Every structure is written in C-alpha cells, then in structure tokens.
Amino acid sequence: MKDDLFKNNIGIIGAGHIGQALALSLLEKKYPRENIQLSYNGSIFTFSDLYDNNLDELIHNNSDIVKSCSIIILSVPPQNFRQIGEFGLDEDVLVISFMAGISIDTIKRQTGSNNVVRIIPTGPGTIRNYNAIAGVYPENNKANTIFKLLEIDYYVLDNENQMKYMVLAGCLPAIYSVVDAQLDENKEAIGKIAEEFSDFIEISSKAEKLVPKSNKEEFVKEVSTPGGVTEAIINSLSEGKSLYDSLIKGLERNEELS
Known about the structure:
258 residues, 7-stranded mixed sheet
C-alpha cells in the first residue's frame, strides 16, 4: 500500500503550520521529495519558515498543483478557502481537507472532485511528533494509508455532523494549556459534550497528554489560527467564561466559518 501511495503527487495548498508539518513528516517518512508540492499565500514570514525548513524548492502555484497532483491536501484557514477560487479537478482526485467548518459539499462544489475526505486533527506539533489525534469522515483507503503513515490516531466518524465536535477536540491540547482538565467543572463540561459525541471523553483524556510541559503560551499561539475556533475558545476563557460556555462559543465560531 505504501509503495502505491508513494507514486502519487501530493499537493499541499496552504503552507502554514499544518501544511509544513505535513510536508516535513511526509519527507521524514521517506515520501519522495519530487512528489510533494506546496503553495502559500505569498507571506514573507511563511516563505522564511519554508526556507528555514528546506521546503522552499517545493513551492508551486495552485494551478500547477491542480494540474499535476492526484492527491490535494487543503490546509488553508477556512475563512480563506473561498478566495482561492474554483479548482476544476477531475471528480476522482482525492481531496483531503484539514479545514474546520467547511463542509464536504462545499469542497466538492469548489474543487470539482467528488472524492473528498475531511480530517480534523490536534495541532501541527502533534503531527510532527507523530501523536496527533483526529476525526475522519468518510473513510477512504488511500487517505487512511496517509494517516497511518503519519501515525495519526484517527477516529472514523459516523457522519459529517460529528466533525464539529472533533473541531473542539482538536482545540483541547491548547485549551488544557490554559485550564486544568481535572477540575470537576471542566470534567462536567466534557461530559456534556460527550452526551452528543460519545468518543469525546476518551479523546479528551488523550488530548490532555499532548499538553507541553513548557512554553505553553507559544504552543497556544502556534495552534491558534487568527479568527479560528481555538482562538474563539481561548478568548472566551480569558474573559472568565466557563469551559462549557467557551466550547459552545467554539461551536458557534465553527458554524460561522462553514
């Protein structure tokens, strides 16, 4: 399966923290360098990171990626997705979306592909450390091969609606960097979400172990996309709101982005 996978050109649209984490991890797993392409929004800061990580030679424009890649990974901020424009992909091109809030139907309409998988993981650092937790929908054999290669602990969800709870789960390592997961009121908050998504307690326990021992503020900044769900939850917590109310605020922000 891995040998077959390595024959595919992978195009990563969005070379921010997650995009670069994916590229670096794929290279570390011996994915052929010549079969990986990256695009980014032109930010000089992003280019500096790409250069420092020896990824600058993988930069292509979106039109090149769309033409030459059989696997497209979307890791742009969800609020920027529509700005990219239509892709015009063949309907069997595999599109793997790491974007919160953007539905499969929306991705299909904009890309032209009918072969779309969504994955919501914990932060880019966990991808690099091979201890990411993620929700996936729907199941797809080729996508699963990539997730296994990257050692992602993934849950195949029953339906796409559950993705909104995995968006919250993806935020938990950052959340637990600023609140105590073991407080009774915080456990109760997780339990309330678990009434709608039964895996949430188990995922929460795993996410708690992903909190770094040091540099927690830097970790939170790294995984908080401006305008994103994590930022909305952290801001709510900083205003003195309860964890449960802040998680609901995160769900509301996810809905706004969809």
